[in-house]
Predict the 3D structure of the following.
Amino acid sequence: MRKNLYIVFILNLFWGIPYVFADVDHALKAYSKKDYTEAFNAFEESSSQGDILATHYLASMYYQGLGTLKDLNKAAILFEKSANQGYAPSLANLAVMYAKGDGVNQNIVRALEYQTRAADAGDAQSQFILGQMYRQGEYVQQHYEKALLWYLKSAEQFYVPAYNEIGLLYAQGQGVEMDYIIGYAWIFLAAEKGDRQAKLNLKNFDQILNKSQKEAGQKVARSILSQYEKNIKAIK
């Protein structure tokens, strides 16, 4: 994966966690207070009892050297342990580690394998990265249709950068029939959410679409967002 296609090592500590055990909850609170030694010890205790989240967070602390000495090899081993239980953020982090050779021998094939597994497990950022790879033909054969598929999966989870890329595919007719209004709609959505590149891309439509066409695109954008929000409510 390209270096600018980053994975945030999860101590974005509340990623998709409906419930955590008491020790993990204690560790999270300690971490939020920057009491890294206490957090590390609590994660280690819970990890020894088989808690997947604790194992993932413990790996993250080894990776960053928080509450303990930095040890990329231990981080990789622990990420592998939680990844083997299907935890998407661990799969995503292993993809980065194998791509960069952090704590493991650099192996692009394994990096791609972990990236795909993370995306299949529902990690929005991994889905976006796969979309980028297929669009650019990096480490995989260029395939715009597959790029669009992964961007859409990421967008369904409201991953804003994916909106912009979907818009570009429509605007350029890559993997889909060219449609400036739909392209504008997706890029408008990203720009509304603060995406800098989308704001720049939006200006390019000034020479392509008139006012009424832009208004039509904004209507499409609202419809897309409304549908996604309905889907989320239906799942809940």
